[in-house]
Amino acid sequence: MHTRVTIEGILDDQDAETNNPVIADPLHFFDMCPVSDGGCALILASGEVARKLGKPMIRIAGIGQATDTHAVHERPDPTDLSAVRIAAEKAYKMAGVGPEDINVAELHDAFTILEIAESEEVGFFKKGEGHLALERGETMIGGKIPINPSGGLKAKGHPVGATGVGQIHEIVLQLRGDAEKRQVAGARTGLTCNFGGFGNNVVVTILKRED
Fold it and tell me: ∠ CA(143), CA(128), CA(81), 5° rounding?
């Protein structure tokens, strides 16, 4: 008998069908993140003030924002997350970097499939190849481009309004070298993608460590 690992433990196939039903093939119930309460805050300061704090200074190097058609079925291609791509392009241009320069990323994975789709739209992988990169371990800590070392929304929950700020907090920890057991070695440039609706409103932020 095959088993399936879920957040409730190990279930046999029969229990899995009951407790982890298909929602929209191939996604099951546990492919959706839990919506939760939570809060997060960032303190922004000038470079002069930040340098006095005694910690590595993390600079907001680039920000991009874009929107898309509200109703997914009215888009020319419902699988094309154009707002993610456009927001990322804007952020890369402002920061003067490209996808190849990103050392660590936090991508909005309210559903497990979103991490894969966003990893393609922000330019980490070619369209249709994000799942292959994941299977090869390229998105793990120690891989080509570690994604969601925090565990993402599937692990920590989705406090909605606080989610995007929480992503930036994680990248700041990574770039300062304060992420402990989930630390990405040598990370100096990080990216976050905060995803509203189904790509209706997207914000991409790029952070750099300044020594």
Answer: 100
The closest of 122, 132, 131, 143 to 191, measured between CA atoms, is 122
Q: Mean pLDDT in runs of 10 for the chain (211 residues)?
A: 42 64 88 85 90 91 96 90 97 98 96 94 97 96 97 87 92 97 97 92 97 82
Cα dihedral 117, 123, 127, 131 sign: negative
The rounded distance, in Å, linking the Cα atoms of 53 and 131 is 41
What are the pLDDT digits (tens) for 113-172?
999 999 999 999 999 999 999 999 999 999 999 999 999 998 888 888 889 999 999 999
9-12 and 22-24: which strand pairing? Answer: unpaired
Q: Which helix (H) or strand (E) covers residue 193, if one does?
A: strand 189-196
- Cα torsion 153, 88, 191, 163 to 10°: value is -30
Give backbone dihedrals phi and psi of 186, rounded to 5 degrees, phi first.
75, 15
